[in-house]
Structure formats: C-alpha cells, structure tokens
Amino acid sequence: MLGFYFHLKKTTKRILYGSLLFTVAMTLTASRAPTALEEVRNRGELRVVTLMGSTTYFKNAKGQGGFEYWLSKAFAKHLGVELKVSARDSVAGVLVSIGGPLGDFAAAGLTATPERKKRFRFSYPYYEVSQKVIYRNGNKRPRKVEDLVDGELLVIPKSSHSERLQELKKDYPELHWQEMDGLEMLDLMSMVDSGETDYAVVDSNSYQVDRGIYPQARAAFNLSEPQPIAWAFPKHGDQTLIDAANAFLKEFEASGELAKLKAKVLSQTNQFTQGGSQLFISRVKTRLPKYREMFQEIATRYGLDWQLLAAIAYQESHWNHKATSPTGVRGLMMLTLPTAKEMGINNRLDPMQSIDGGTRYFLETRSRIPSDITEPDRTWLALAAYNVGMGHLEDARVLTDRSGKNPDLWEDVREFLPLLQQKKYYSTVKHGYARGHEPVAYVKNIRHYQSVLGWHSLEEQRRQERNQRLDIPNASDWHEGSMLSL
C-alpha cells in the first residue's frame, strides 16, 4: 500500500511537471512574434506598393492592370490571400513605403541597383531592362553621351536613370539634366514626342510598350547594360516572405506563365509600323473628336467600352463616315447592305446609325459565342467572327481542339485561323477555305488601337496636370546619395 502511494505521488508529480512544461511552451509560442509570411496569411491580405505606369500598374474602364499588378496578384493567389495595391505618385514615394503599413514589398518595376541594395532586399529577378536615351524624330540623333550635352535631357527623380547619369558625370563633367516630380516614363515619352524636351531616359520595356502611342519618340542608344528588375523588401524582419516570393517567381517562370505574362504586356505595340502609328495618333487628334460623343453614347446604351467601339470603327473606316469599299460596304462601321437592313439601318453614311448598327451586329455575333467562354476571350473571338464569319471561326476552334490546345482561348485559336488557307487543313473542316490571317490581324489591330486610346485619354489628363506644375528644377548637382533608382 505504501509502495502504491509513493508510485501515485511520483506519477502525479510527472503529470504536474509535464503540464507546467506544456504551459510554458505554449506561452512562449503565443508570445513569439509572427513571421512576415505568417503575418500576411493571418491578415488574409498581401499589401503591395507600386507606381502608376503602363508596365507597372494602371486603372481603366475594365479595372486594374499592368505587369506588376498581374504578377503580384498571382503571388497573392499562390499564398491564398487577397491583394491590396497602393499606388504612389513617385519612385521616392514607393521607396519610403516599403515595409510600412502600405507595403509588405514594392512591385514597381524597380531596378536592383547596388545603391538600392544597401537599403533594401530584393527578390529573384524576373525581368531585365536597359536604359534607353530617346529623342524626337526629325532631330539629329544622339549616338553617344557627349551628344547629350547641348540638349535638354529629362529623367525621373531618384531613378536608376539619374543614378546612372551621376556615374557618367564623373567622366563627362559637362553633362547636365533636369528632373520633375510626379513624372512617369509614359510622360517622358509624351514630352519627347511633342518636342517639350530634347531627350529623355526610359527603360527598354516601357519604350517597347509605349512607342506606338508616341511614334515621334525614337530610341537613340542604350545608356546602360541590361539590369535586373525585382521586388523590393525591407531590410528589417525575417526572410520568410522573401523566400516565399522567390519560390513563387521561380515556379512561375518554370511553368511558362511568366513568359506568357511578358508577351501579354509587350505584344500591344511590337509589330506596328512607325508610319501607321503616326497616322493613327494624328487621326485621334483630327478625326476622333467628331465622333467621340457618339461612341460614348452608344457604348453607354449597350454597356460596352467606347474605346473598343472606336477601335473597331478605326479598323473598319479610319473614322471616315463616308468610306465606301469596292465590295459595297459603307460608312463608319463599314456595314454591308444586308447587315444594315437586318439592323434596321436606312442610311449607312449617317455616323450615329452606323455606330449603332455596327454595335448591335457585334453584340449579336458575340451572343453566338459559346456561353462558357469568358472575357476577354469572348470579345476577341467575337471580333474574329465579326471579320471572318462564325463558321470559319468554329472551323479554327475545331483545329485548335484537335491539336490538344484550348478552343476557348483566343491565344490558342489565333494560331490555327491562318491554317484555313492551306488545303490539308481547310479540307478537313465544314466551311472550307478562309483567309485566316485576316481575322488575326483584325483582332490584333483593334486591341492595339483600343490600348492606345486608353493611354491617350490618360495622357490628356496627365498633360493637364503637368501644365499646372511649377518650373522643372535643375537636379544635375544633387548629391549621389539622393539618387535612389527606379
């Protein structure tokens, strides 16, 4: 009995000691600060600070967009949280927000320069850009740094461009430039295009995307070698969120999704001639104002983007309401006589009737696209059918499906439309031969025009804002430590 008592006492002590240790362990665990990754998951929100721009982040009638936005959104989805974006007005504003309440990190097309690495930690690089000097077409092209000395050179404040110029100034003491707060690279392209400044420095990806919008702005020479673009994280804190970002970026790259995203961003203006872009911009200024309110009224009536309707009309008639083709199609939307009768249009040369009839015909075409196909593919496929006919579009979708690709995705279907010109393909489908390259070009052109119109509207607004600003301060003598790059 006594032995049992001592055994029970010993067991009780063990239980008490175990409970005490467990309580202490739980207390220590509970008191431990969450890691950066745990904090993001606990709040259910990934906070990203970015910069407005065509290659970073923007808002339009369709919502939010931009390379950095889409990439960050994919990362947030990977983590199982929502994305919250805070856009800053300047590079400096982005940098000071990193690690604060607005931004767990910055996704703003930032170059991972040696100077910036002293203050921030950077993710795995997902892009490379070169710094390009641009000049206005018609002026003498600068070919080296010395050629910039006699002109007005404009750069974004506290950018990698100004940092690079500070380095070059050691070898070229006469080199000078100017900086203005609140500018984006899109603004610089615009100012060179309009002759407001002689030269500017922009990143190669921005030039690639925006050169069709500002055809007078031409590339002169590269100011730098390719430089890595990465997400910027604060120096303080642990590595958990950075490690998660690196793992995601490497996986996103290996899967091919990163390449697709780059193609999506850069495909808008890659293949447009300088002359075609200049003509379009000229007609935006001279012809579009006559019809803009009509496009807006009809778009509102049918719940569409007016810039899409304007883009279709430009592709059809170059905004000439009296246009007539040898085949008998007429008017702003180039309607055939049977289509006009079907839509109840009695005067194809009347701009308002033409826009209304063309819009209703497009909507009717889109309604015939299978209901499980979502936007934006639904619109792109409808435009292709609007051009080549629904039967030929379905034939191309059949060829797409046979190949094992997705017949509901425009990016896949457009590869097979041109094959309808080859007998070994069109002989195997219902509707036979078609000039399949034409709807591919048709959709590409309309997407390009719509994109340019969106950026032109934004540029108009920004131009008004620029006109209200003070004189540009001369910043060529700023000390090197203040040059925190883009």
Provide a compact summary of the structure.
With 486 residues, the chain is an alpha/beta fold. The protein is built from 20 helices and 14 strands. The protein folds into 3 domains: 38-124 and 230-266, D-Maltodextrin-Binding Protein, domain 2 (3-Layer(aba) Sandwich), CATH 3.40.190; 131-224 and 470-482, 3-Layer(aba) Sandwich (D-Maltodextrin-Binding Protein, domain 2); 274-443, Lysozyme.
CATH architecture of the largest domain: Orthogonal Bundle
- Which CATH class of the largest domain applies here? Mainly Alpha
Count of extended strands? 14
What is the third-level CATH name, the topology of the largest domain?
Lysozyme
Low-confidence stretches: 24-29, 472-486
